[in-house]
Design a protein that fits this description.
Blueprint lengths: L1 H20 L6 H66 L3
Length: about 100
C-alpha cells in the first residue's frame, strides 16, 4: 500500500510539472530575461575577444622588450670586456 501511495503521489507531481511546463509559450518576462541574458553573453564574448587581442599585443611588446634587453646585456658584456682588456694592457705597459 505504501508503494501504491508513492506511485500515485509521484504521478500527480509529475503530471502537475508537465502541465505547468507545457504552457502556451514563454511569458513576456521570460522573453525579456532571455534577451538580457543573450545581450550579456554577447557582451562577455566581445570582452573576451578584446582582452585576447590586448594579450597578443602585450605579448608582442614583451617579446620586443626581451630582445632589446638581450641586445643591451650583450652590449654591456662587450663594453665591460673591452674596458677590462684595455685596463690590463694599460697597467702592464706602464713603468715608473
Amino acid at each position: 500500500m505504501k508503494n501504491f501511495k508513492k506511485i500515485v503521489i509521484g504521478g500527480l507531481v509529475g503530471m502537475s510539472l508537465i502541465a505547468t511546463a507545457c504552457s502556451s509559450g514563454p511569458s513576456e518576462e521570460q522573453l525579456n530575461t532571455l534577451g538580457e541574458t543573450r545581450q550579456a553573453a554577447e557582451a562577455g564574448e566581445q570582452q573576451v575577444k578584446d582582452l585576447e587581442k590586448e594579450k597578443r599585443s602585450l605579448q608582442s611588446e614583451l617579446e620586443a622588450k626581451q630582445q632589446e634587453l638581450s641586445r643591451a646585456q650583450a652590449e654591456k658584456a662587450r663594453v665591460e670586456k673591452a674596458v677590462s682588456d684595455s685596463g690590463e694592457k694599460g697597467e702592464g705597459g706602464m713603468t715608473e
